[in-house]
Amino acid sequence: MKMRDAGLFALVAALLVLTGMMQSWNLALQILNMGLISAIMALGVNLQWGFAGLFNVGVMGFVALGGLAVALTAMPPVGDAWRAGGLGVFSALIVAAVAITLAVVIWRKRLPARGWLVAAVLLVGFILYRELFDPARDAIEAVNPALQGNLGGLGLPVLFSWPVGGLLAAGAAWLIGKTALGLRSDYLAIATLGIAEIILAVMKNEDWLARGVKNVIGVPSPLPTAVELQENAGFAARFADPITASTIGVKLGYAVLFAVVLIALIVLMQLALKSPWGRMVRAIRDNETAAEAMGKDVTRRHLQIFILGSAICGLAGAMMTTLDGQLVPGTYQPLRFTFLIWVMVIVGGSGNNFGAVLGGMLIWFLWVQVEPVGAWLIGALTSGLPEGAFKDHLMDSAAYMRLFTMGLVMLLVLRFSPRGLIPER
Amino acid sequence: MDLLNAFVALSNFVLVPALAYGAQLALGALGVTLIYGILRFSNFAHGDTMAFGTMAVVLFTWLFQSWGINLGPLPTALLALPFGIVICMGLVLLTDRYIYRFYRAQKVKPVVLVIVSMGVMFVTNGLVRFIIGPDDQRFADGERFLISARTFKEMTGLDEGLAIKTGQALTVVIAVIAVALLFWFLNRTRTGKSMRAYSDNEDLALLSGINPEKVVMVTWLIVAALATLAGTLYGLDKSFKPFTYFQLLLPFFAAAIVGGLGSPIGAIVGGFVIAFSEVLITYAWKKVLTYALPETLAPDGLAQLLSTDYKFAVSFVILLVVLLFRPTGLFKGKSV
């Protein structure tokens, strides 16, 4: 890292300290925590785009899968639901998997009339699947629908769900990569955009899985919660204001946890980047044909990196759901979870891990703070206007300043510093 | 068995809505495909360009309504349409002049332009929400139905009704006119021919003295008009909500790619392929099957293949199948 880069990180730190002093330390730590998570997501996208030139605009889907992993790992299992329909759902899923595999095998074998065979296999598979699946699903969703109505999780410690989130995202990425990675860059972009929407549609509609839009709440916390700290006599006696102290304490705890993950990832990514593997990957990015001529397996490398990068996004998604303590599929929006991460990588500097981390922290800070600043700015600008519908409309609209600002920041960086704040070296 | 009623029910719930939706998708996909053919990148800001143009139309519609101007049975939005198109043209010309032109002059890789269009998408999206807000806006007025279900039943004496909304009828009529004009322009006028030449082979076109900046400008103007048209018709048929317009990006691209990126005919066919498959697969067939099949065979359930929430999945799977088995699309698009 050069002096200038360190200076940029110091600037972000100063912005956070300033927030702590001028607004509240709780807010500053909140921004820091989400900033750390955003930085991890940015590292994942940077691995795909910055290192390998893979254009993935389905980040939202992988982040959401990470969140799903938390619900499936850390929540207690719902025994009645398992007894009611667990077997049915799983046998249905196995039937579906067998039908699809069979179809692929038939297609690959180049049997005569394979088109009709594949269609027939898929049709029969689909009917069987629905016959098994529908009653099982209804049975599960009928179990205590107000609070559960799903299969629940495995009841494992919540920290365990983070790697599971990565694995789940990696599995999805393997499936997508196998089908879509051979495509040209903008086709891959459209494909990933579509996959993310489908993953979210599944999470919103399959209530038996994680309650869909009814949300999973009360995810267990890896740290003592603020309430637990306040009830602890020793903790309460030590601070003048135990409520503030406890909320700040919990957030600090998360910050340490996230920072450990982030630092471990940066170390790994730096080692990878500087290794022969990293040089090969960048050589593939810069000239695929030449790399292929040198005997490098381009498709395999692409698949590997697509899986690794997506796994990192899934890990970050699981961390975010743990921090929130709930899984709310309705809050996943492509602008926030896909395109904002892209702004972070582009602004920070694609191809440079420190750049991605800086972009993640800085852009997240802006995303949060543009709103109050925008509201203040509009308030100041319109102070001369008479009260009325027009002024109210302007004040209400201040919230959308952030989209505008993010676009503007991205366009300005692309124009005047196209390699980002900390460029690739 | 009652095939006539089955057909009427099918038309009411499947054919008419899918025809209107397909026309809207075709207009949107035409915009995507023209940008791809001439400027050679996938424009992620297209959904938001459409939202911006439609927003202008909505604002003008409200202005005319407040002045008491209307078109009788037709929606006032038709009157506002030309004004909205002009404003949308202003927006795309500004973004081209101050954003895209810089990168075009540098001859950057197409993927850089895609990323730039993401920035434009954010800015336009922010602008639209800033001006009109993120909520649903209804702006259709005038006669709601061309034929309502009840009139149809009275006219024909059938059990099933067939309702055709004014928005749906207008969509099809206007889309046909717009597409006819576009093809006349591309095939018969000098500028249109130079656009096609530029799209086919840039170097040859430049050698024969075609001014690239003029071609690009005309393309943007046409795209703005098509986007505003598609957005307004979609809004009249359903309603205007900025986020929905952003999400339409996926079916647009699916339609354009299925037809073959860069091919205008492909975009139209692709639009209808996507629209009909979405509606056919997410429609509950119970009613139609009950009419069409003998009583013993009538289905118990809804006979719905996928719930309507999965309509994105349908366009996506078609997209994937076409990409895997015929990567240039149905109508030999280009692949840069």
Task: List its traits.
heterodimer, A: ABC transporter involved in vitamin B12 uptake, BtuC, 2 domains, B: 336 residues, ABC transporter involved in vitamin B12 uptake, BtuC, two-stranded antiparallel ribbon, transmembrane helix (chain A), Amino acid/amide ABC transporter membrane protein 2, HAAT family (chain A), membrane (chain A), LivM-like (chain A)
Description:
The complex is a heterodimer of chains A (425) and B (336). Chain A is an all-alpha fold and 425 residues long. Chain A has two domains: 3-77 and 152-416, ABC transporter involved in vitamin B12 uptake, BtuC, CATH 1.10.3470; 78-151. Chain A is built from 18 helices and two strands. Chain A has a two-stranded antiparallel sheet. In chain A, helix 1 crosses helix 16 and helix 11 packs across helix 12 (276-286). The model of chain A has no long low-confidence stretch (mean pLDDT 90). Helix content of chain B is 73%, strand content 1%. In chain B, strands 1-2 form a two-stranded antiparallel sheet. At the A-B interface, helix 7, helix 15, helix 17 and helix 18 of A face helix 4, helix 10, helix 11 and helix 14 of B. Chain A: InterPro entries: ABC_transp_permease, LivM-like. Chain A: This is Amino acid/amide ABC transporter membrane protein 2, HAAT family. Chain A: Keywords: Cell membrane, Membrane, Transmembrane, Transmembrane helix. Chain A: The chain crosses the membrane at residues 29-47, 54-75, 87-107, 114-133, 153-175, 187-203, 252-273, 303-323, 335-354, 361-379, 399-417.
